[in-house]
Specification:
This protein is mostly helical. It has one domain. It is built from six helices and three strands, in the order αααααβαββ. It has helices at residues 3-26, 32-66, 81-93, 96-100, 102-128, 144-149; strands at 131-137, 154-155, 169-175. Strands 2-1-3 form a three-stranded antiparallel sheet. The longest helix is centred in the first third of the chain and has 35 residues, at 32-66. The mean pLDDT is 88. This is Phage head morphogenesis domain-containing protein. It comes from Nesterenkonia sphaerica.
Length: 180
């Protein structure tokens, strides 16, 4: 199973859990405060898992590149995961999309929150591990813009650009630019 597969499963899980909470809100099973608290907790839990996955992915790729086992860094996302989840849920629930279709809006938010945590932590882990360069790895169904940017080597001083719904991941190219 690839990193994309694992990340997709995690995103899909966040999507389905937040959709289920939105259905419960619509059905009157949850009041607004309960819904918001549960949605924030769920998004933060999935973000934490994505963050851990990012740290492991960076360590694994560096181990492969250098031929030396690497321990995982203690990198965390570049932001507080729970606060980011709370803010994202709050923002999403105040949109017109949420007013029109809360289930779909929460599904989209769940996947986006997980990806943001993964992407932020990947960047932080690469920086913490001394990685100087990375490349974009795309999925087979990536958009044309992302496919055009695939495999371009960039310095880690520049965080990878993402569009809404982007599932591309940054992959270390070398440690300290040694094998460029």
């Amino acid at each position: 199973m690839s990193i994309h597969d694992t990340l997709t499963r995690l995103s899909d899980s966040a999507r389905s859990r937040l959709e289920a909470l939105a259905r419960r809100l619509e059905a009157g099973e949850l009041d607004w405060e309960e819904f918001h608290a549960l949605a924030t907790t769920e998004a933060a839990r999935r973000s934490s898992a994505a963050s851990s996955l990012a740290v492991l992915a960076v360590a694994a790729e560096l181990s492969r590149l250098t031929g030396t086992p690497r321990s995982t860094s203690t990198a965390r996302a570049g932001f507080d995961l729970e606060e980011a989840a709370y803010d994202a849920i709050t923002e999403q629930t105040s949109t017109q999309s949420f007013d029109l279709d809360p289930v779909a809006a929460m599904g989209i938010a769940g996947a986006a929150i997980v990806m943001a945590a993964y992407q932020s932590t990947t960047h932080r882990a690469m920086t913490d591990q001394g990685v100087s360069f990375y490349r974009r790895e795309v999925e087979p169904d990536a958009c044309e813009i992302c496919r055009d940017m695939a495999d371009i080597v960039l310095p880690t001083t520049h965080q990878q650009w993402h569009h809404k719904g982007c599932r591309c991941v940054a992959v270390p190219v070398s440690e300290n630019g040694a094998d460029q």
